[in-house]
Amino acid sequence: MALKIRMARGGRRHLPSYKIVVADSRAARDGKFIEKLGTYNPLLPSDHAQRLVLNTDRIKHWLGQGAQPSDRVALFLGKAGLIDMPKWNESPKKSAPKAKAQERVREKEAKAAEKAEAEAAAKAEAAAAAAAPKEEAAAEEAPAAE
């Protein structure tokens, strides 16, 4: 029997909550499981203590028995320090923007950089212009005092 540590969905529509369970790999996602090892509530903020609750002793036991964690559960266990952090590809190459979309993004960034440079140059000119009349006024007043 191949064992998997995976998530079983609970909750209602648009309000998910998950149980982290150890189950036979042939069992249905929300079906029969052997033992509940923790919970995951994605609706809570990421720094909330109840977002991810793990029973570390039992997880270590099942990992020792040969249970394989699913990709998402392996990420949770890696962050908790129970296993080595798995390699995680955030987005597949298939869904990456195509060439034209990437070109538009680069053009947009170039325009934003040019605009920022122009604004910086305008501020520098304004500062220089503001400083210059004071120097000229001081120079004009000095001969009048003589």
TrEMBL record:
<feature type="compositionally biased region" description="Low complexity">
    <location>
        <begin position="123"/>
        <end position="132"/>
    </location>
</feature>
<dbReference type="GO" id="GO:0003735">
    <property type="term" value="F:structural constituent of ribosome"/>
</dbReference>
<dbReference type="GO" id="GO:0015935">
    <property type="term" value="C:small ribosomal subunit"/>
</dbReference>
<dbReference type="GO" id="GO:0005737">
    <property type="term" value="C:cytoplasm"/>
</dbReference>
<dbReference type="InterPro" id="IPR023803">
    <property type="entry name" value="Ribosomal_bS16_dom_sf"/>
</dbReference>
<dbReference type="GO" id="GO:0006412">
    <property type="term" value="P:translation"/>
</dbReference>
<feature type="region of interest" description="Disordered">
    <location>
        <begin position="85"/>
        <end position="146"/>
    </location>
</feature>
<dbReference type="Pfam" id="PF00886">
    <property type="entry name" value="Ribosomal_S16"/>
</dbReference>
<feature type="compositionally biased region" description="Basic and acidic residues">
    <location>
        <begin position="100"/>
        <end position="122"/>
    </location>
</feature>
<keyword id="KW-0687">Ribonucleoprotein</keyword>
<keyword id="KW-0689">Ribosomal protein</keyword>
<dbReference type="InterPro" id="IPR000307">
    <property type="entry name" value="Ribosomal_bS16"/>
</dbReference>
<comment type="similarity">
    <text>Belongs to the bacterial ribosomal protein bS16 family.</text>
</comment>
<protein>
    <recommendedName>
        <fullName>Small ribosomal subunit protein bS16</fullName>
    </recommendedName>
</protein>
